[in-house]
Amino acid sequence: MKEKLVIIKVGGKVVEEEATLNQLLNDFAAIQGNKILVHGGGRSATKIASLLGIESQMVNGRRITDAETLKVVTMVYGGLVNKNIVAGLQARGVNALGLTGADMNAIRSVKRPVKDVDYGFVGDVEQVNVSILGDLIKKGVVPVMAPLTHDGNGNMLNTNADTIAGETAKALADIFDVTLVYCFEKRGVLKDENDDNSVIPQITRAEFDAYVAQGVIQGGMIPKLENSFSAINAGVSQVVITLSSAINKNEGTKIIK
Amino acid sequence: MKEKLVIIKVGGKVVEEEATLNQLLNDFAAIQGNKILVHGGGRSATKIASLLGIESQMVNGRRITDAETLKVVTMVYGGLVNKNIVAGLQARGVNALGLTGADMNAIRSVKRPVKDVDYGFVGDVEQVNVSILGDLIKKGVVPVMAPLTHDGNGNMLNTNADTIAGETAKALADIFDVTLVYCFEKRGVLKDENDDNSVIPQITRAEFDAYVAQGVIQGGMIPKLENSFSAINAGVSQVVITLSSAINKNEGTKIIK
């Protein structure tokens, strides 16, 4: 029987403000057993880039990463945000280790090919190093993963944090019983986006398709759920979409195979 | 018999310029066996701080680290410089892992007490985690250590890279036969600072004291040699002061017990 592993993905907003970060670190520290934290940091990156006179250009919600922007995200995600979380978890007795994909070759990616849009130094994940991550986790180490990978040729690449979490969950499902928790600013997938109490408690692929056809689920929620079903289909035991303040509560929307 | 371990400390200038960085990474990759790279990054920190409108204040060659400066050095040392080196080493087949003192509690420090000068968020090393570093190294992982530690209470602390290298060397001398190499911009300790060919090939404590009394060795060289003798006295097998371009050559000044 596989050991359990919980992978929590939190967005930039939660980890960039002291009050919400402290709450998250307390909640995350309280999770028993094997765990991984994957974080964003986009708001800080935009702010620091702006102070450095670098304009942040977004297409379809994704950051265009030119050479100067790559430096900024490497600093902000891999340094400022990641180390702040690691130090905070260590203070709470969690043996955190900050990782980018370059560290111990944890995640190798390939620079996204230019099609309609040139995203620049953005990585599409090719391989998650199951052996190295598995060894660390089984020793009680808690990886704190920044949304950065490398191409194996010496270049860091900016990589979406949802993707890091999803690909890591899929790869580690070979050796762990994985629960993947996507945190965001809503209580779950809502039937009515204006009613926070309209959380859909669980959803199958067929139900998802029906909700999309009806227009109940739309916009940015669609790729998030597509990612979730992809994870479930690749062997992840459970995917949950919930509030970051609810990672220890049995709330949110469960994605069911 | 203890396994050998080589610890190389390089300053910011070497790792911040592409040509010298590539040369260093090639030379470091060529070192056989167990190894650690400790790096600085002060020039980049000063440059980024300046772009962000934060003035860099130095006292006795040390950076006064206020809260904003701490953010800058955490970004620059832990993110930009560290990950660039890690990705570069991975491309050369070295299984590099970037670490600050917070990661896996590798190095815990205490905020320097305020005496004549308030250095701010600067850490004096209290404990190097020999067990965790030893385990990694024996598995073939190559730590790449940024000049940052943590206080165990959630705070990162800025910590001199020479100190990181020296304290790590001393602590790991318990389980390894350690050679510590301090790289700097001269070929070694010089008898005549204007003559690069006047390298003192080896130096004992008694000779050092005599050179200081004669005024041959002075200025910033004195604390560097004091650190070196401290390492030798604490069980480090060999300390070498040399050029970063000479880490694979039998050059520079050897510090002898």
UniProtKB/TrEMBL annotation, chains A, B:
GO terms for cellular component: cytoplasm. Pfam families: AA_kinase. Gene3D superfamilies: Acetylglutamate kinase-like. Its main location: cytoplasm. Coiled coil: none annotated. Keywords: Amino-acid biosynthesis, Arginine biosynthesis, ATP-binding, Cytoplasm, Kinase, Nucleotide-binding, Transferase. This is Acetylglutamate kinase. It comes from Bacteroides luti. The lineage of its organism: Bacteria, Pseudomonadati, Bacteroidota, Bacteroidia, Bacteroidales. The gene is argB.
